[in-house]
Amino acid sequence: MAMRPTAVLVTCEHGGKEVPDEYRALFRGRSALLRSHRGWDPGALDLASQLATALQAPLVASTVTRLLVDLNCSPHNPRVFSEVTKPLRRTERLALLERWHRPHWDAVRSALGAALRAHGCALHLGIHSFTPVLDGVRRRADVAVLYDPSRPVERELAVAWARALTREIPARVVRRNDPYRGNTDGLATAMRRELSPSRYVGIEIAVNQRHVDPSGRFSEWVADALLHTLAEVFA
C-alpha cells in the first residue's frame, strides 16, 4: 500500500438523540421521530468508543440528535437542517451551526492537525449505522465500507478492508459504497478538500442496525471483525 497511516482518528457524528433543554419545545410530540433512525445512529457511539480504545485513537463524538443539526452535512447543505429546524428563522439556524456544528468540525480538524504534525498522515474512521429498511426497500448489507474511489490510496485500503471482512465474516454481506456513497457531501468529503491524499485517508464504516442488540450495542462480532481485519490490512 502506497501509504500506511500511522495515526487514527475515530469520529461519530450521530451518536445520540439528545435534545438540549432550550430546544425541547421544538420536539414536543416527536419522541417517536427522535427514537427512529432519523434521530440518531443506534449502536454507532458504542462501536466508535470500542474502536478508539482498541486503536488508542482519539474519539470526537456527538450525542445531540441529528434532527437539530446534522454534523455529517456541510453547513451549506440544505439537509444540515431537518424538517424540525428548517422552519426556524435564519438567525436561529445560524446559531445552531455555531453552537453544535462548527465546534464538532473544528475538533476534528484539530485532532487531524495534531496527528499530521506527529505522524505526517492519518486515517479518519467515521462510524455510522443505517436502518435495515428504507422506503420499503430492504438493505442487504451488514457492513458497509464507504470511501472516495477517485483517491487511489483510499480506494486501495477500502477494497482490501472489504475483502478481508468478507473472509473474516463470510456469513455477513460486506458492501463498498452501499447503501451510501462515500464521496457525497459530508465530514470526510470536506476533509478531503482540505487535506492531500498523501496525508489524509477518510473511511466511513456503516453497520446495519439489525445487529443492534436490546442493550443498544452492536453484537460483539462487529468490533472484533473490524479490528482484526484492519490489523490484517496494515500487517
List the helices and strands and how they pair.
Blueprint (H helix, E strand, L loop, with lengths): L7 E5 L18 H5 L8 H12 L3 E3 L28 H30 L2 E9 L2 E2 L2 E2 L4 E4 L5 H17 L5 E3 L10 H8 L5 E9 L11 H14 L2
Parallel strand pairs: 1-2, 1-3, 3-8, 6-7
Antiparallel strand pairs: 4-5, 6-8
Helix pairs in contact: 2-6, 4-6
Notes on the structure:
It is a single chain. The chain has one domain (8-233): Aminopeptidase (3-Layer(aba) Sandwich), CATH 3.40.630. The protein has 235 residues and is α/β, with parallel strands linked by helices. It has six helices and eight strands. Helix 2 (44-55) packs across helix 6 (220-233) and helix 4 (152-168) crosses helix 6 (220-233). A six-stranded mixed sheet has the order 2-1-3-8-6-7, with helices on both faces. It has a two-stranded antiparallel ribbon with strand order 4-5. A hairpin with a 2-residue loop joins strand 4 and strand 5.
Compact summary:
With 235 residues, this protein is of the alpha/beta class. It is built from six helices and eight strands.
Estimated share of beta-strand residues: 15-25%
User: What do we call the CATH homologous superfamily?
Assistant: Zn-dependent exopeptidases
* DSSP, total strands: 8
Structural class by SSE content: alpha/beta
Under the CATH scheme, which architecture would be assigned? 3-Layer(aba) Sandwich
List the uncertain runs.
none
Shape: globular
Query: What letter string, H or E per element, gives the SSE order?
Result: EHHEHEEEEHEHEH
The CATH class is identified as Alpha Beta
- Helix tally equals 6
Write down the CATH topology. Aminopeptidase
Largest sheet: 6 strands, mixed
